[in-house]
């Protein structure tokens, strides 16, 4: 067969008469049937890289699109091996500019006040502030109401006790013949001291009740705020009222454990100190013993306080009893004690400084109008106490919800780190966005934990990565495994498909 420009072999069966020359060849070349003898044409220059995503032609001058010889994989390169000089799949070639679709970590899902992944200190504090901003009525309003009630009750008790003491002292001083009686003076002073202690005790009990109730309601609000939902004060009370008694029991038991341990260690130290002094021991040893006992009591109290710090959110969100909540809090803090302790300590310092700065002007104003003689200027003294209490109300309105939010978010962070609870929250948030899923009050139950094991090694990955940082479970899992095509066993596709071509080397994935 000839086209008028010389003779050439007949076109093989199955080939088009206008078949193009081999890819990368120089000029026209005579056609030959596969496997035919003869002298092969001289090799042309090495093939150049085609457009983005195009693969170079197979070696040996194999025409592009021609079926490979028997025993040779499609494309001339054994599948699963990287051609020399080629960049591994998912990695940027040397010297090339990064593309817009490089391998990266997508942001974590954030439907509410926090991203649904293990939290950093900044995430916890930002979430606490965002929690207050997004729910001003249920946080600032509720805190202000509780703070006002506590301050009013404390002010009434203070006025009653101080007023009674002032009347007694006035009668003793003005009564003829009684001012010099030592027994009478001691009795009055003893009554005054007992009254002050009773005042402090009752005030602490009332503040504990109010703080426990407020913390429980704020935790209920935060349980919804994680999903971006808002509830009213009435709904927060409806969610919390069934947990008031367990919260009170937890508060009493926690106070007994923390303060009891402190007092017991300090008491034992004082007994040893008294024995040492009675035995005429050296003064330096007595001072050293006192300091050691004081530090030991502080360390034990701080340890117990940290271990019990997450029991409140457990009672409210997991609907647990007092004993179960204490055990659960010990379990959650285990393995990350120093981080939990550091965040709680920093929060106490921050809230203390903020409260002092906000209440200091009112304290100065109250001191300025207080009378020099409290026995003759009781009304003015009450006005000074009222101003001081007003500063306390303003400070408590800000610091109470922040402290409660930090504790609850720290509880959520410990569950996400220790139980992969972020996967549960991500799934629930996605379902609730479609109007499906479980109620948020039920999701916090420990039975919904994705796993009771900690996250795998490595930094936490973003939403969508299996195992949250865990390594692959086998060579055949995931795309890129040796001997498997993209998508689990499908044959490799045309090497010129470009973007989305399967990886050439299973070891080329970033680890």
TrEMBL record:
Pfam families: GPDPase_memb. Residues 458-471 have a biased composition (Low complexity). It comes from the Bacteria. Residues 291-417 form the Glycerophosphoryl diester phosphodiesterase membrane domain. Residues 1-86, 432-511 are annotated as: Disordered. Keywords: Membrane, Transmembrane, Transmembrane helix. Residues 8-18 have a biased composition (Polar residues). The chain crosses the membrane at residues 140-166, 186-214, 247-277, 283-305, 337-362, 382-411. InterPro entries: GlyceroP-diester-Pdiesterase_M. Residues 477-490 have a biased composition (Gly residues). Residues 39-71 have a biased composition (Pro residues). PANTHER family: EXPRESSED PROTEIN-RELATED, OS08G0107100 PROTEIN-RELATED. This is Membrane protein. It comes from Planomonospora sphaerica.
């Amino acid at each position: 067969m000839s086209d008028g420009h010389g003779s050439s072999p007949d076109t093989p069966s199955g080939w088009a008469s206008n078949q193009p020359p081999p890819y990368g060849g120089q000029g026209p070349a005579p056609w030959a049937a596969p496997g035919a003898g003869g002298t092969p044409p001289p090799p042309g220059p090495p093939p150049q890289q085609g457009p983005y995503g195009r693969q170079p032609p197979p070696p040996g001058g194999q025409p592009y699109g021609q079926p490979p010889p028997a025993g040779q994989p499609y494309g001339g390169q054994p599948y699963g091996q990287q051609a020399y000089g080629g960049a591994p799949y998912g990695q940027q070639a040397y010297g090339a500019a990064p593309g817009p679709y490089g391998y990266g970590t997508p942001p974590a899902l954030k439907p509410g006040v926090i991203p649904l992944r293990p939290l950093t200190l900044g995430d916890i504090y930002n979430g606490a502030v965002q929690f207050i901003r997004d729910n001003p009525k249920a946080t600032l309003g509720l805190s202000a109401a509780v703070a006002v009630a506590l301050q009013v009750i404390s002010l009434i008790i203070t006025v009653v006790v101080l007023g009674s003491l002032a009347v007694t002292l006035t009668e003793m001083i003005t009564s003829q013949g009684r001012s010099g009686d030592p027994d009478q003076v001691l009795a009055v002073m003893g009554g005054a001291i007992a009254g002050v202690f009773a005042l402090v005790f009752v005030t602490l009990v009332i503040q504990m009740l109010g703080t426990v109730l407020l913390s429980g309601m704020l935790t209920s609000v935060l349980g919804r705020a994680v999903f971006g939902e808002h509830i009213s004060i009435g709904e927060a009370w409806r969610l919390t009222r069934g947990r008031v008694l367990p919260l009170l029991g937890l508060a009493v038991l926690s106070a007994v454990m923390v303060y009891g341990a402190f007092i017991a260690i300090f008491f034992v130290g004082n007994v040893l100190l008294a024995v040492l002094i009675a035995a005429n021991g050296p003064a330096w040893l007595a001072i050293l013993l006192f300091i050691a006992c004081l530090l030991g009591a502080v360390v034990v109290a701080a340890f117990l306080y940290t271990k019990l710090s997450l029991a409140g959110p457990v009672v409210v969100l997991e609907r647990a009893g007092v004993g179960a909540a204490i055990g659960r809090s010990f379990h959650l803090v285990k393995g990350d004690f120093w981080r939990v302790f550091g965040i709680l300590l920093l929060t106490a310092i921050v809230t203390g400084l903020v409260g002092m700065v906000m209440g200091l002007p009112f304290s100065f104003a109250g001191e300025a109008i207080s009378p020099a003689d409290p026995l003759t200027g009781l009304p003015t003294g009450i006005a000074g106490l009222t101003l001081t209490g007003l500063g306390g109300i303003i400070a408590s309105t800000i610091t109470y919800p922040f402290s409660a939010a930090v504790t609850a978010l720290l509880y959520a962070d410990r569950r996400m780190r220790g139980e992969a609870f972020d996967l549960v929250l991500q799934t629930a948030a996605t379902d609730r966005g479609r109007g499906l899923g479980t109620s948020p009050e039920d999701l916090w139950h420990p039975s919904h934990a994705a796993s009771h094991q900690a996250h795998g090694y490595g930094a936490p990955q973003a939403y969508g990565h299996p195992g949250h940082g865990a390594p692959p479970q086998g060579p055949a899992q995931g795309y890129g495994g040796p001997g498997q095509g993209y998508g689990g066993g499908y044959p490799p596709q045309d090497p010129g498909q470009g973007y989305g071509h399967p990886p050439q080397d299973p070891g080329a994935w970033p680890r």
